[in-house]
Amino acid sequence: MMQRIDKTKTRYTVLDVLRALAIIAMVVYHTLWDLVYMFGADIPWYKTDAGFVFQQSICWSFILISGFCFSLGKRKLKRAVTVLVCSLVITAVTALVMPENIILHGVLSLLGTAMLVTIPLEKFFKKLPSLIGLIINAVLFALTYNVSNGSIGFGEGFSAELPSFLYANNVTAFFGFPHSGFYSSDYFPLLPWLFLFWCGYFLYGIFEKKGLLKYLSVFSCKPLEFIGRHSLEIYMAHQPIIYGVLFIIYKII
Prior knowledge:
Blueprint (H helix, E strand, L loop, with lengths): L12 H25 L11 H21 L6 H22 L9 H21 L2 H15 L6 E3 L5 E3 L8 H6 L14 H20 L12 H8 L1 H22 L1
Antiparallel strand pairs: 1-2
């Protein structure tokens, strides 16, 4: 999502299109969130399992694409720091403007941190067969998916509760262990989502080794590519714009 592709290399337009579709879906989802939680609209579907699947599909897409594109970026450290700074801006603004809906450890925090963590590990990762890396991280993602809810494992029959002392404060929440009073409107801790980011990283390795990258340039759609190339800017701007429009509609008109 937030990792730009190096323009000096071949432009993989399919990635831009996929990123654009994800960002459009996210704008739709956040519009529904504002309608339901900030303007009191009655949208029953939003709180159903289908609404949850829709939300999760957007998150998974962003994180996988970002991990996939990591190896394509040239200024990785600069990009990681930029994304982290943007995440801090969002936290500060939400804390000041609407503290009841504060965003702590959101998706930008995850992506920026994932990039930073991956930079020193890249030499090791490149020695690991990509398929093995993908399988390991997919298993670890599934294993830690419910860590934030206090357990680790695969479903009810193959899981164990984690000790309560892990869930201490906002710092432990960053890693995936939120305390009982923790709240964030957008919460993506390192566990389990770092492993999904790395799934995207190793998936790129498979595409590269198998010569599949060429197929990521077979489709082009200029408007969507433009949106995909500016996903970070759109992410930063979309919520104030959505809220402003809805405020005018609901409170003024």
